[in-house]
Amino acid sequence: xxxxxxxxxxxxxxxxxxxxxxxxxxxxxxxxxxxxxxxxxxxxxxxxxxxxxxxxxxxxxxxxxxxxxxxxxxxxxxxxxxxxxxxxxxxxxxxxxxxxxxxxxxxxxxxxxxxxxxxxxxxxxxxxxxxxxxxxxxxxxxxxxxxxxxxxxxxxxxxxxxxxxxxxxxxxxxxxxxxxxxxxxxxxxxxxxxxxxxxxxxxxxxxxxxxxxxxxxx
Length: 218
Fold this sequence. Notes:
By secondary structure, the protein is mainly alpha-helical. It is 77% helix and 0% strand.
């Protein structure tokens, strides 16, 4: 006999991510798109790690950091995207708790601490960088520095902007599908463009890539 205290309890052994299930006509297209993104992301990040490890002139603190970033992105992508390919991503908030509003408040508090504050610190650092760039006497030097800094800033803004929008605004029927689209930006697209923005545009990395290509060719 089940006691009243146990009446509302149930045992869950698995869950299903619904994701973009409201768009059944796009399932095949989304699957193919995410497969291409997954392959490109893994290839780009693994390439960066390989170049940093195998080329002596890239054994510097900056490239050590970029190699670690690519390594983390590889594990992050391998954890998330295969599961996404199986179920195409979905918020679990209504499955996780009988009171979704409580979970939303908890998510809002956590995102405020762990995302908004780092975003503000990152923005302040970029303001300092821009102020330093403006003091560069050479016009060519300023343009080159702004080109590098602006691309980095775009990636940071996309990552934090979409992340904060998804978790800081309440989930409604109107925003639900829009949030799913935004979540793709910080979970899928950011790991894809990081190797291009932070490494493959770099002169030293390009030289290492060309040396590796020539070795493989011969």
